[in-house]
Please model this.
Amino acid sequence: MNKNEAMLDQMVADYSLVTNGYSGKAPSNPYPMFAEMRGKCPVMHGDLLIQNNIPSMADYMMSGRPVVTLLRYKDIHQVLMNPADWQSYIVGDGFGAAVDNMLLTAMDGEEHDKFRATLQKPFMRSEIRKLIDTLIRPVVVEEFIAKLRPAGKADLLREFALPFPIRAMYAYFGFPHDEDLLGNLASWAIQVVAAPQTDPEVAKITIPQSMVAGQSMYDTLLPIVQAYRARGEMRADILGYMMQVEHEGKRFTDAEIAAFIRMLLLAAGETTTRSFANMMVQLLENPDVLDEVRQDRKLIPKAVMETMRRDPTAGAVARVAARDMEVGGQVIPKGTAVLLSIASANRDPETYEDPDRLWLKRPMRPLLSFGFGPHMCMGMHMALAEIEVALDAMLDLPNLRFDPAYPHPQIRGLNMRGPDAIHVLWDA
Ligand code: HEM
Model:
């Protein structure tokens, strides 16, 4: 087996571990369950994830913190827009220790606002759009699709969706192109994220493993940062930006940059893979919609957003009440966590007409699949650009269809949703 195959096998194994962890005993299609719960009890006492044996960011350490699950779009939107009363620090409970608590997503208040303002620029839409022709399309088309094309068949998950976002994102970080390095960092990032587990016996293994993985990431990143600085050429990438920007009147040290990049690697890993994969399964299951996009490629951004609405990978996020609060007429005491079911909100009929339908021309509402408000995903424009370019490349594969020799892919999980494989055929 060559090195590339071994790396792909490792990625698939890590990916499946995450999917299994976030699937628990939930049905692979949770939407009928959400519809019923939203109707009966949209502000539900208890934690929907824990109830399904899935680690929950509302209480990663299973401390017994009181948790309420919110299922309606309007309630979730309201919580996300009010970071003063609904704080994020609990998100760092599970794996913050493995990354020295350097997690933007778990920061609150002024600390969050200042960091975010300092770091935002290379992730802005205008910056990312410049990368489409210089970086993203060459990676997608030349490094992946051109090589897959003659075979007329592929497992899109293993051969494309898992490796391409890492390859593009790591190039934008400014890392050297080295497959072992990419494979190791991607694997460690997953081990850090996989630390929280509902089974205490499993957690006894995953928590120490996440500490080692976090340290390995740092030990690998620091010399990369140091070598980059030593070369003295500041390129238009994230490392180049981090070396020049000032935060509270000071430049970042190499150690701070390594810790920051490590945090980004956790967030930038598989989310793009899974969103692309969920989009492809939905489009292949709805050939009329796939044809609609094929005939009018201006619809690509809509197809990406609509498939991310209808089946988001980030199924839930969490906050904690900083004071006694009220949601949907119910009192939520200070210190209670709220688990926000984005997957349920995205199919709320009060917000989306005919919510189960994949409908590209539906009136858009603010999309919650990247979160919303001040913590809204910082990598959103990178992820969108990657998925749009990838879909464009898919549309160039004539007569793309599921391969009937394999079982129909099932998107599963209540969080980090995704299919295990996407076997397809096209006319080579
Ligand atoms: C389709 C792919 C992606 C999805 C679905 C996604 C989803 C999310 C969600 C739901 C949040 C909000 C968490 C919360 O409010 O508690 C978030 C935050 C974040 N994401 Fe993403 N993400 C994606 C890709 C990326 C990429 C590629 C990067 C990095 C380059 C990234 C970096 C971040 C960071 C740094 C935050 C924290 C922002 C803050 O707290 O201010 N994400 N993401």
Q: What stands out?
A: Residues 88, 91, 104-105, 116, 169, 264, 267-268, 271-272, 275, 313-314, 317, 369-371, 375, 377-379, 382-383 surround protoporphyrin IX containing FE (CB under 6 Å).
